[in-house]
Structures are given as structure tokens and as C-alpha cells.
């Protein structure tokens, strides 16, 4: 997963400001850091996204993000 896709998924699910706050503040205990820290360390953004989805109980049907047509 590209970093831009990760950021778009965060915005789609949590919103612009809350998504940034979660990425910066929410510690993924099983992975040992926040999303921002983990990605900076080189962890695959997909693994980070899946861990966030698990922590925030994001349903499977929303884990792929919003369809591009729905954004328009």
C-alpha cells in the first residue's frame, strides 16, 4: 500500500483532522507505536491500516475506503 492510499483511507474513515490525530496519538500496542511512528520505521502502511481497523472496529466493508465516484 502506498502512503498516499493510507492517508486517503484515514480521511475516508475518520475525517481529515481526527485521522491525523489518530495517526499521531493512538498507540497500536501490538505493533509498539503510533501509526506515524510505525510508518516512519518502515512498517508497511497496509499492516498499520489493518491494525487501526482492528483497534477501532472498522467493519470489513469499510476497510477498502470510499469508492472514487462517491467522493465527487
TrEMBL record:
Pfam families for the chain: DUF3046
Protein origin, superkingdom: Bacteria
Protein name: DUF3046 domain-containing protein
Gene source species: Corynebacterium lizhenjunii
